[in-house]
């Protein structure tokens, strides 16, 4: 896999068992990017809203439904995101906490990871991306 695409709410914001710590998926995205994996944020939000400076540290591409006129689970938003990453759909993993969005990504040719628990998502991403994530 050469690309990692993640949702924001429910994925990057999931703090796992240690509510005081930085959300673990933030560290995982950064580790993947440092390992040469292209990264994208894909959100059904209207746009980025207030600037979040650390987003640029994590992501090569930011895609917001409100900016592009199409939303998850429509296959076109996944195709747009992988095109902006410069990759093929089959080279990308998509992580979301909503199963309907995973189904849309899989229909577009991506590998889907349904985020239900931090540890399970980190394990699956480690296997798919070949990156060992610091678990704290």
Describe the structure.
The chain has 136 residues and is of the alpha/beta class. The chain is 41% helix and 17% strand. It is built from 7 helices and 5 strands. It has helices at residues 8-12, 24-34, 55-58, 65-68, 75-85, 99-107, 118-129, and strands at 3-6, 38-43, 61-64, 92-96, 111-114. A 5-stranded parallel β-sheet has the order 3-2-1-4-5, sandwiched between helices. The chain is globular. The protein starts with a strand and ends in a 7-residue tail after the last helix.
CA(first)-CA(last) distance: 24 Å
Radius of gyration: 14 Å
Read across the widest sheet, the strand sequence of neighbours is 3-2-1-4-5
Q: What is the strand content?
A: 15-25%
Strand tally: 5
Fraction of residues in helix? 40-55%
The ordered H/E elements are EHHEHEHHEHEH
Biggest sheet, in brief?
Answer: 5 strands, parallel
Mean pLDDT: 92
Q: Provide a count of the helices.
A: 7
Shape: globular
Low-confidence blocks of residues: none
Structural class: alpha/beta
């Amino acid at each position: 896999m050469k690309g990692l695409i993640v949702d924001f709410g429910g994925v990057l914001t999931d703090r796992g068992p240690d509510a005081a710590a930085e959300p673990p998926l933030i560290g995982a995205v950064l580790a993947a990017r440092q390992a040469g994996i292209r990264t994208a944020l894909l959100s059904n939000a209207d746009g980025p809203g207030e600037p979040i400076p650390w987003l640029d540290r994590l992501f090569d591409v930011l895609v917001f439904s409100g900016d592009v006129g199409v939303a998850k689970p429509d296959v076109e938003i996944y195709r747009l995101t992988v095109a902006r990453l410069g990759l093929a759909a089959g080279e990308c993993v998509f992580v979301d906490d909503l199963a309907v969005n995973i189904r849309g990504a899989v229909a577009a040719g991506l590998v889907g990871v349904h985020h239900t628990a931090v540890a399970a998502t980190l394990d699956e991403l480690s296997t798919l991306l070949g990156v060992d994530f610091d678990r704290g």
